[in-house]
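LAB NOTEBOOK - FOLDING QUEUE
OPERATOR: T.R.
BATCH SIZE: 2
PURPOSE: Compare the predicted C-alpha cell outputs for two unrelated chains run back to back under identical settings.
PRIORITY: normal
REVIEWER: second-year student, initials M.K.

ITEM 1
FIELD SEQUENCE / FIELD STRUCTURE:
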Amino acid sequence: MTWPSFGGMVATVLLAACSVTSAPAATSAPSSAPAMASLRSTDAPESGLPELISDHSFERPVQPRMDAAYRTGLVTDHCVDRDLPAPPVAEQALVVLDRTYALTASYVPNDLVTASEAGLSGTSGTKLVRAALLDDLAAMAAAWDAAGFTILIDSGYRSYAAQAATFGSWVARLGYVEALNRSARAGHSEHQLGTTLDLSSPGWGGRFGDWAVEAPEGAWMAAHGSEYGFVMSYPAGSQGDTCFSYEPWHYRWIGREAAAAHRASGLDLRRFLVRYAGR
C-alpha cells in the first residue's frame, strides 16, 4: 500500500545517551487476564531524562507516512521494562509509549480541559482531556446519543504521580512481576498524554470482562470509534506486540485521518505508530 507523503520534520530517534545495554530490565510473565487501563502505572523513569515532547500547539494529526530511519532507530525488544525517553515525533498525538519508552515525570499537557466542554455530563464531564480532541469527542458523544447509548468516561488524563500510585497499588496486591502484566509503570501510560479514555456503560458490570463483546456500547466503539479518531490501543490477540493485556475499554485519540489510516493498515496501534511516524 502506498501512503501519501507529507512535508515537514521527520522525527529522529536519539538513543546514544541511553543505550539498551545499560538500561535496567525486568522480566515479566505473560498474562491472559485483561487489565483495567484505569489502574495502570510504573516506577519513575530516571529524573534526568530530557523532555523530548514539546508543549507547543497540539495540532490535529494528518495521515502519517512511513519513515524507515525512525523505525529502525527504535529498540526491537520493547517489552523489556526500562525507561528510555519517548522517541521525539513531529506530532504529539503519534508518540510511541510502551514498556520501554516513557514520558518524563514533568510532562503535563498544556491544554487540559474537562470533558464537559465536549458536552459530557456527570462524572464523565469532570475528566480531563486535551482541548485538541474536544470536537471529535463532542461528535462521538452526539453519535452515542443518536444510537441510544450512554457511554461513560471512567478515566481521562492521569498524571505521572497518579500512575505511580496506581501501579504501586497493583504491586501491593499482586507483587511486582504480576503487576507489570496488569498495569503500566508511571511514564509509560497513554493516559499521561491526555488523549486516552477508559470507557464503560451503565449496564455493564464486568470490570475485567470483554466490553466490546458483552455490551452493545462497547461493540459500537469497536466498530465506529476510529471514525472520530479514537483507536483501541490494546486489542485482543495483540499482547505479543503491545506487551499489555487486552483492554476493550481503552481508547486513544490520534485524529480522524490517522485513525482511518490505522484501520486500513490492519496493524495494532503500537506497530502502526512505529511504522508510520512523522509527517
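ITEM 2
FIELD SEQUENCE / FIELD STRUCTURE:
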Amino acid sequence: MGRYVFAIVIGTVVTLTLLFVMQLLIVTGKTALTDPRERHKLEFVRVKRNENLNTADLTPEKPPKPPETPPETPPQEMDNINPDAPTISVAAPTVSADTSIGGPGGMNIAEGDYLPIVRVAPVYPARALSRGLEGFVDLSFTVTSAGTVKDPIVLQSSSSLFERAATRAVLKFKYKPRVVDGVPVEVPGVKTRISFQLEE
C-alpha cells in the first residue's frame, strides 16, 4: 500500500514539472516570435526584362572635335622701315708698327715677322651714335709670343667716347708671332688706329 502512494506522489510531481516546463517554453516562444528586434524581413523584387530596349541609345557619344588651329599670322610687311635711316659702318683699323729689330750693323735678324690674322671691328658706342659723332683712337700694344694682344694703351683719340670700344676690339686681335732664331718673341710698341665713321 505504501509503495502505491509513493509512486502516485512521484508521478504527480513529474507531471506537474513537465507541464510547467512546457508552459514556460510556449511563453518564451511567443515572445521570441513577437519581438520585432529579432525579426529580419527579406524582400525579393523581380525585375521584368525590357525587351524593347533600344541598343542604339547605349552607344557612347563621340568626343567633341578639337578646336581648329588658328590661322597663321601673316608676316608683317616692311613698308614702315625708313629707307633713309642712317647705317653704321666701322672702318677697318689701320695697323702701323715697326716690324724690324735692330741688330749689329743695322741688320734685320728677324726670321719671321708678325702678321695680323684676326682683326675684330669695334662696337660703335651708343652715346656717340646718338650724337652722330665720328672719330678715331690711336693705340699702342704688345703682340705676345702666342699671337695675342696685351697691355693696350690709348695714345690719343678724337673723343673719350670711343676709347673703351677701341681697346676692347684691339684685345681680340690675333697675330702670327714674330720668330727670332726659331723662337717666337714678343713685339712691344705695335701701333694701330681705329676709326669710327657713319655711312651717309
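REVIEWER COMMENT (ITEM 2): The beta strands are 88-89, 94-96, 115-118, 135-143, 149-157, 174-176, 178-180, 183-185, 187-198.
FOLLOW-UP: none requested
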